[in-house]
UniProtKB/TrEMBL annotation:
Pfam family, one: Pkinase
InterPro entries attached to this UniProt entry: Kinase-like_dom_sf, Prot_kinase_dom, Protein_kinase_ATP_BS
Biased amino acid composition, Acidic residues: 434-450
Region (Disordered): 1-25, 424-477
Cross-referenced SUPFAM superfamilies: Protein kinase-like (PK-like)
Annotated source species: Nannocystis punicea
Ranges annotated as spanning the membrane: 335-355
UniProt-recorded name of the protein: Protein kinase
GO molecular function: kinase activity
SMART domains: S_TKc
Alphabetical UniProt keywords: ATP-binding, Kinase, Membrane, Nucleotide-binding, Transferase, Transmembrane, Transmembrane helix
């Protein structure tokens, strides 16, 4: 178990209500504050005051009441700022932000803030007990913290003291990890105050979560919260803080100088995806310009990383069924065969009748009736022979190939070349060759293993079996299908309207055998991301692999 810097603390200051004898009871316990809130139990002590579990005496509802220590409440300007911040924080109104329902001061000078009462524990306690969490669980928690911050930032409120102690974990319905973020806007007052505070708070907030620009004394903005969320995420994933020195100063130095080990390397058994590493490390960038520009971008990147991991887990899509056999033009073979059978049967019957008459006549004439046998033998032959090819494709009619003209030597008569005796017979079972359309010819190349798409038109080769190559139209449709995922997963690496061209080899089974970014994005993170998504595309099976190019606009 690691030690953490925070925990229940005694209120500080030299005088006033905040200091009661260490072993004695809290003097406010049992009192009803502002005629409404009966203070029943001390929940804990923080940098500014004490938090009580209380009951609203009218509606009988439990609430949490934070009462400012005298050291703070005796300073008028500080009280005013506390109340202003409380007013702002009460407007955030988000399910992941603790609801502030009331605030004010009493006639005897107590300044207080009333919140919804939360039953559960803070994230520091969860980490303390459970250590590192599975990455998906950690990500789900962090996304809720980010949602709370997004709502606060939208109101112009920067938390500035994000840490696990300010994130409350409670059960809601079936979800045991529902998060509420506490203490919005309060940290700012602590920092601006000149009241002496416990060293763990320091001038900068909590040292383990403080952004480098705060250490450097720069004017903070919302990106300090992104950095702190990065530290918390790392801690949840790995079970240890990314920057933790032996002392206060060495921790601050680590924030400024030390590069964190990627979470997946720090905890290899956890199978943390590379894309999650990328999100954490970017949130922890020392230079705030290198971080996500806002917390919404952070959340989008984390969601995309989760989606990418989900996609990698999903079973590959079923191969497309082979394209239907092309229907021969004209009558269906079954119709032709049936008609032929009928004609031949009628013809046989006529012959049979004539022969019978002839035979009968012969017998009548005293002869042997010799014709009966051949006609009877013929009858079963005809339907048997015609019924067999029902499943065969019809013969393809082949135009006669003219022999080239022979040029006679001067003076000799021109002899006609013998006509080609046997024109190339195309087997009925063979597929007719599919000619690529113009676009395919421009964009697709078929590699050396198969025939070129555009052979000489006058010398058709006997095609190999199997359907023709993927056309440009089919390829373009497949790329359109993966387009939304390309945008979702890769736009975080891209500026708007950037173009990425990928060269793609589609195998005979219809899967993408390789996808390589080309041109200016060759080898770039963006290019590799696009190629990775393109590799999940699936086309129809063909008789040969083919090469295509496609340009995505981000
Ligand atoms: N609404 C609430 N419901 C239940 N417990 C709460 C609520 N708000 C705060 N607490 C608990 O009260 C204790 C004191 O909280 P407080 O916010 O004063 O301290 P802190 O966050 O630890 O310190 P600091 O204010 O210096 O950041 C903590 O244990 C906190 O979890």
């Amino acid at each position: 178990m690691r030690s953490r810097s925070s925990g229940p603390r005694r209120a500080s200051g030299s005088a006033g209500r905040g200091m009661w004898p260490a072993d004695g009871p809290d003097p406010l316990l049992g009192h009803t504050l502002a005629d409404r809130y009966k203070l029943e139990r001390v929940i804990g002590h923080g940098g500014m005051g004490t938090v009580y579990r209380a009951e609203h005496v009218v509606i009988r509802k439990p609430v949490a009441v934070k009462v400012l220590d005298a050291a703070h409440s005796e300073r008028r300007t500080e009280v005013e700022r506390f109340l202003n911040e409380a007013r702002a924080a009460s407007k955030i109104r988000h399910e992941n932000v603790v609801d502030i329902t009331d605030f004010g001061s009493t006639s005897d000078g107590l300044v207080f803030l009333v919140m919804e009462y939360l039953e559960g524990e803070d994230l520091a306690s969860t980490s303390e007990r459970e250590g590192a969490l599975p990455w998906r669980r950690a990500a789900a928690i962090v996304l809720q913290i980010a949602a709370a911050l997004e709502a606060a930032h939208a109101q112009g409120i920067v938390h500035r003291d994000m840490k696990p102690e300010n994130c409350f974990r409670l059960r809601r319905g079936n979800d045991p990890d529902f998060i509420k973020v506490l203490d919005f806007g309060i940290a700012k007052i602590i920092e601006d105050s000149d009241v002496e505070r416990p060293s763990s708070s320091g001038l900068l907030g909590t040292p383990e979560y403080v952004a480098p620009e705060l250490i450097r004394g720069l004017q903070p903005d919302a990106r300090v919260d992104i950095y702190a969320v990065g530290v918390m995420f790392y801690d949840l994933l790995v079970g240890k803080l990314p920057f933790a020195g032996e002392s206060f100063m060495s921790t601050l130095t680590a924030h400024l100088m030390q590069l964190p080990q990627p979470p997946s390397q720090a905890r290899p058994a956890a199978q943390i995806p590379e894309a999650v590493d990328t999100v954490v490390l970017r949130a922890l960038a020392k230079d705030r310009d290198q971080r996500y520009a806002n917390i919404r971008e952070f959340s989008a990147a984390l969601r995309a990383a989760i989606a990418e991991a989900d996609a990698a887990l999903a079973p590959p899509p079923l191969p497309l069924p082979p394209p239907p056999e092309p229907e021969p033009r004209g009558l269906h073979p079954r119709v032709v065969i049936a008609a032929g059978t009928v004609i031949l049967l009628v013809f046989s019957a006529v012959l049979w009748t004539m022969a019978k008459r002839f035979y009968t006549k012969g017998q009548d004439d005293g002869g042997e009736g010799e014709l009966a046998a051949p006609v009877v033998a013929m009858a079963p032959v005809v339907p048997t022979r015609l019924a067999a090819p029902v499943n065969e494709a019809p013969k393809v009619e082949v135009p006669k190939v003219e022999a080239p003209p022979v040029v006679a030597p001067p003076g000799e008569a021109v002899k006609m070349a013998a006509p080609v005796a046997t024109p190339p017979q195309v087997e009925a079972a063979a597929e007719p060759q599919v000619e690529p359309d113009a676009e395919t010819a421009a964009e697709s190349e078929v590699d050396g293993e198969s025939e070129p798409l555009r052979g000489p038109a006058t010398t058709p080769k006997s095609p190999k079996s199997g359907p023709g190559p993927v056309t440009a139209g089919e390829f373009s449709t497949a790329m359109t299908k993966v387009g939304p995922r390309v945008k979702l997963e890769c736009s975080r690496y891209s500026l708007r309207k950037m173009e990425v061209t990928v060269q793609v080899v589609v195998g005979p089974d219809g899967s993408v055998k390789s996808a390589e970014p080309t041109g200016s994005q060759a080898g770039s993170t963006l290019g590799n991301c696009v190629a990775r998504v393109v590799k999940t595309a699936l086309l129809r099976p063909t008789r040969a692999k083919s090469t295509h190019r496609h340009t995505f606009t981000m």
